[in-house]
């Protein structure tokens, strides 16, 4: 009787153990099958048409993701309608895509998550006002889901800055991969706000690595930027017909590495290999403040933030008022009154260069100020007193010289996979069949 009792007791315990193991395995499998949650902020329709190419790529891989936001953040002509136009093309090609893979989202669900974001760059404070896009980001981030929201920023980072200001608690819920470089130049004030006030953000600041997607000096001949379209895209579906409109079909898609990063690799480990690059933790980001003009003897890091501050008359105007401009290379940058007779303007050089500038203003003390600077690689360069102090989850381009493509830091961590990711895409283009 005692032995029989022990047998029943052991059997019961063994059954409980098996049940726990089964539930654990079930939860593990469920998590493994979860599609990554992504939120796209794009300057599609602006001066650089590569976002149209990247949007086509995204839609052709839409079965792999939970797309929770498609936000237009453009300071030029781009608007939400540009995203909607691309979804219209996707809708026409969708029946052919579904023949090969299930799980592609309905066009209506994609249209529902299209929102309008910022349409002007942030002033000196780094913020302007809430937008439909920033509010949507907050609502997506706050969902009670045990899975991070991957915020992939293809243009200005203004909506992210605004969302962090309005709801800083979302930081624990999001992972940001930002295509910086030129976008950092245009969004320098929003970047300053984030780096100063939210250094504990989980952020990949990709200033140069992304260029490995389209710099193809080492590429096989059939998949060079010029050859890929006629070999694999031409005549395939409505999206294929549209692709020729952007760079004559030449592959650029400088924002696509952010998507590829989540698509192929271990996203929570930026130091690992992925189609979207490999990155290193950084504890600071370069910032140099000049009181007055800089000279050719002043060296700054490429992709670093430069801030010039000038003295002038005390004005009875609101802080952050634009009262002068800084002209660099034919482009003009707004300079601001920041109070108490102080004026400031920020800039971020996107390449190694010797830069020259001149100020333009109706205020005598601010008109005709001239200066130079020298920007060098790698970023973030030598430590300086005003550098941003970052947290333990901020990542940047690898500085190793052997990973440069020309002057582009870390770019070989993407270009090494060029054949792999482009031929994978070619398989999907084949689904659309030639007309």
Notes on the structure:
The protein has helices at 2-33, 50-60, 80-98, 107-112, 132-141, 158-166, 182-186, 188-197, 228-233, 237-243, 256-263, 412-415, 418-431; strands at residues 37-42, 66-72, 114-116, 149-153, 174-179, 203-206, 279-281, 284-285, 287-291, 299-301, 305-311, 321-328, 331-339, 342-347, 353-360, 370-376, 388-389, 394-397. It is an alpha/beta fold. The strands form three sheets. It has an eight-stranded mixed beta sheet, sandwiched between helices. Helix 6 (158-166) packs parallel to helix 8. The radius of gyration is 25 Å and the shape is globular. Mean pLDDT is 93; it is low at 17-32.
Spell out the key features of this protein.
435 residues, alpha/beta, eight-stranded mixed sheet, 13 helices, 32% helix
The low-confidence parts are 17-32
Count of DSSP helices? 13
Structural class assignment: alpha/beta
N-to-C terminal Cα separation, in Å? 79 Å
The 3D shape can be described as: globular
Average pLDDT number: 93
Instruction: Give helix % range.
Output: 25-40%
How many strands in all? Answer: 18
Radius of gyration (CA) equals 25 Å
Major sheet, described briefly?
8 strands, mixed
Across the major sheet, the strand order is 3-2-1-4-5-6-18-7
* Portion in beta strands: 15-25%
């Amino acid at each position: 009787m005692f032995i029989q009792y022990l047998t029943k007791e052991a059997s019961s315990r063994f059954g409980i153990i098996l049940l726990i193991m089964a539930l654990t395995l079930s939860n593990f499998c469920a998590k493994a099958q979860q599609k990554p949650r992504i939120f796209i902020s794009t300057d599609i329709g602006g001066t650089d048409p590569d976002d149209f190419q990247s949007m086509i790529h995204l839609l052709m891989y839409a079965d792999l993701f939970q797309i929770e936001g498609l936000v237009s953040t453009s300071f030029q002509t781009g608007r939400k309608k540009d995203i909607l136009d691309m979804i219209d093309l996707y809708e026409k090609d969708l029946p052919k895509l579904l023949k090969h893979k299930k799980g592609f989202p309905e066009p209506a669900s994609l249209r529902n998550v299209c929102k309008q974001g910022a349409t002007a760059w942030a002033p000196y404070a780094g913020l302007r006002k809430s937008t439909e896009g920033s509010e949507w980001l907050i609502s997506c981030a706050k969902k009670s889901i045990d899975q991070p929201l991957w915020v992939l920023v293809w243009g200005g980072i203004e909506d992210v800055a605004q969302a962090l200001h309005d709801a800083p608690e979302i930081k624990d819920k999001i992972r940001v991969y930002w295509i910086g470089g030129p976008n950092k130049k245009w969004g320098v004030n929003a970047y300053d706000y984030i780096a100063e006030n939210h250094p504990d953000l989980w952020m990949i600041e990709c200033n140069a690595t992304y260029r490995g997607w389209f710099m193809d000096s080492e590429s096989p001949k059939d998949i060079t930027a010029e050859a890929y379209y006629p070999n694999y895209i031409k005549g395939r579906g409505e999206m294929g017909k549209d692709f020729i409109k952007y760079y004559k079909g030449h592959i650029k898609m400088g924002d696509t590495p952010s998507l590829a990063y989540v698509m192929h690799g271990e996203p929570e480990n930026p130091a690992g290999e992925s189609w979207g690059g490999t990155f290193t933790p950084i504890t600071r980001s370069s910032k140099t403040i000049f009181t007055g003009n800089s000279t050719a003897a002043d060296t700054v890091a490429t992709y670093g933030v430069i801030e010039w501050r000038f003295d002038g008359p005390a004005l009875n105007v609101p802080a952050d008022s634009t009262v002068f401009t800084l002209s660099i290379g034919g482009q003009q940058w707004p300079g601001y009154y920041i109070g108490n007779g102080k004026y400031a303007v920020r800039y971020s050089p996107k390449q190694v260069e010797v830069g020259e500038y001149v100020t333009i203003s109706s205020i005598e003390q601010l008109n005709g100020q001239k200066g130079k600077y020298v920007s060098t690689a790698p970023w973030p360069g030598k430590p300086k007193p005003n550098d941003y102090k970052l947290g333990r989850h901020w990542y940047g381009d690898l500085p190793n010289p052997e990973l440069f493509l020309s002057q582009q830091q870390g770019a070989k961590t993407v270009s090494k996979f060029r054949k792999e990711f482009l031929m994978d895409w070619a398989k999907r283009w084949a689904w659309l069949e030639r007309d």
